[in-house]
Design brief:
- It is a single chain.
- The chain folds into 2 domains: 16-120, 4'-phosphopantetheinyl transferase domain (Ribosomal Protein L22, Chain A, Alpha-Beta Complex), CATH 3.90.470.20; 125-225, Ribosomal Protein L22, Chain A (Alpha-Beta Complex), CATH 3.90.470.
- It contains 6 helices and 11 strands.
- Helices cover 33% and strands 28% of the residues.
Length: 235
């Protein structure tokens, strides 16, 4: 598993997407280093978090993103400027570098590649959630049927297979929740590589994309949606 202790950042080739997984907590000295990479608005945002764990997670996620991107852009972490794309998705103007971030409890997932959009999601599998009601309300009929036919650990894994893949897909498209979760369909199975089964989004061809999933541990599941021509490397 990738770690920024020490700061030795592998950089993807142009035909690759790197998926960086970071575990919390990190050493105090590293946390301080990452904090100094944040701009003033980000430092103020960090200060507004009531709980230390949330503040730490934000500092590490944003600081780590800046340090990773600095290796891709050949500039200092502090000098990176984020802008909002047309759908509010953060981008770096005038750059072919693409990125996306997700975090849950003590895991942070960052995907970085070139040219093609990408989306990532990581979820804590043991958190309390109403599987039957959420899948019936927000998933397609076929997805919900598959999930509700299972029970126990198998049902929970199938639910989060769908959840992480849908979240990563919507983030790839850049629509956030403006596109209904029922507008796209993914596999509920345990495949490490699968396809997008359906997606009712303008100019999105499901045949151009792949879904990559990985069980990071017993408690964490991650997914990424990337262009089919790109190789995915988990680091």
């Amino acid at each position: 598993m990738f770690s920024i202790e020490p700061l030795n950042i592998p950089v993807a080739n142009h035909d690759e997407v790197y998926l960086y997984v970071q575990t919390l907590p990190v050493a105090d000295a590293l946390l301080a280093t990452l904090y100094t990479a944040l701009n003033q608005e980000e430092q103020q945002r960090a200060a507004r978090y009531h709980f230390e764990r949330d503040r730490t997670r934000f500092i590490v996620a944003r600081g780590l993103l800046r340090y990773l991107l600095s290796a891709y852009l050949n500039k200092t972490a502090e000098d990176i400027v984020f802008q909002c794309g047309s759908q509010g998705k953060p981008i770096i103007a005038d750059s072919t570098v693409q990125f996306n971030v997700s975090h849950s409890a003590d895991r942070i997932l960052i995907g970085i590649g070139y040219h093609h959009p990408l989306g990532v999601d990581v979820e804590h599998l043991t958190r309390t959630i109403e599987i039957d009601s959420i899948s019936a309300r927000f998933f397609t009929a076929n997805e919900a049927k598959q999930i509700q036919a299972l029970s126990g650990a198998a049902q929970r894994r199938a639910f989060f297979n769908v959840w992480t893949r849908k979240e990563a897909l919507l983030k790839t498209i850049g629509s956030g929740l403006s596109l209904s979760l029922q507008a796209c369909e993914v596999s509920a199975g345990d495949e490490t590589v699968s396809t997008v089964l359906a997606c009712n989004a303008p100019s999105f061809n499901v045949h151009d994309w792949q879904v990559h999933s990985r069980l990071l541990s017993q408690d964490y599941l991650a997914a990424a949606v990337v262009h089919k021509d790109l190789k995915v490397v988990w680091v």
